[in-house]
Amino acid sequence: GDQVAGRLFLPLPADLRNELYRVQIGLGDEQADRQLRLQRWYGEREWLTLGTIQVESWPLVTEVPEDIGHRLKDAEIAGKVHLRGYDLERDGRTLKLTLYWQSQETLDTSYHVFVHVGVAGQPPLAQSGGLPVGWRRPTTSSREGEVVADAYTVSLADVPPGHYALLVGFYEPETGQRPETVVD
Length: 184
Known about the structure:
The protein has 184 residues and is mainly beta.
């Protein structure tokens, strides 16, 4: 008789076709073998259909905008993503940063982005981050060659005057580990 409420986040594969899909939900046993769960869910269809949803792919952009403020020669993250450049604007005590990522291929790991203001090797004085594009584009959703414009706002309200570094990159949210980054 217990009622359970929650919010689910369902990342969609990067190569999902533009179609109408059913949204279904079912209960599983975390301790059960994965193969048995798949067999039960897909074999016996023990789920509830909640409705349908029309999926439309993000427009595929493969060119880095000509007018970005700061182009980077090469900064490669996780061996598959390049940071091609960024736009940076300061508005009073706020930084507005747009990063331009380009994927060589789809990532297997859903990384989060970090944006830190501070001194390298020390805790950040200000920060922002999360899944790219306002939590709408997991890194596993980027297609081969795709350029993603990814905007962040960082409050500098509690940062004392001084000169600081702006550090950006990816990390695994479960472990905090950062993938290898190579900058030429």
